[in-house]
Amino acid sequence: MTLMIADTPSHSIRRVVLRVVGAVVALGLATGCMTNDRGQPSNQATGTAVGAVLGGAVGGLAFGSVGGVVGGALVGALAGNLVGRALDDQERRRLAEATQNAFVAETNVPTTYTVEPTKTSSSSSAAAPTVVQAKPVAPATTRADGSTCRPIELTATKNGQTTTDTTTFCKSAGSSELKPVSV
Hints:
By secondary structure, this protein is α+β, with helices and mostly antiparallel strands. The chain has 2 domains: 14-86, no CATH class; 89-117 and 127-180. It contains 4 helices and 6 strands, in the order ααααββββββ. Helix 1 runs antiparallel to helix 2 (43-63) and helix 2 runs antiparallel to helix 3 (66-86). It starts with 8 loop residues before the first helix and ends with a strand.
């Protein structure tokens, strides 16, 4: 005799929730192993975690489903990992400032900053400065909820390697805070 259990919606939801929790735990364990020389989470670990949270939130809002949350979290984690690995705090602050300026600039007019390397006692050779740039690639659009959105191309050149990514940023009506909506 075979016992069959119907796959009810609550069973499906539990399965999806368990998978999401498992993925988040795995991500936490993986990023928890990445620390800098002071025992703090590395830029890469921080970028991965922040990217996963933002990507999951955006994916959930955009698609209104658990799949959207999971997909957004995975894409956000990957993008955050790449950015976190590449840039230190000062460089990220300058890139954020360039993004704010680019949001209100003319299309295809870049905002560029050069960030001199920080001096460390363990580094005897002179490192090249990092160049960060944000360039709006299309005009701003207004959404039905009153928020204004604009795609911005972000570029960072560090240690001779250039990374470029285009992300759409939105600003809620009456707010000055930019939030990425696509990664």
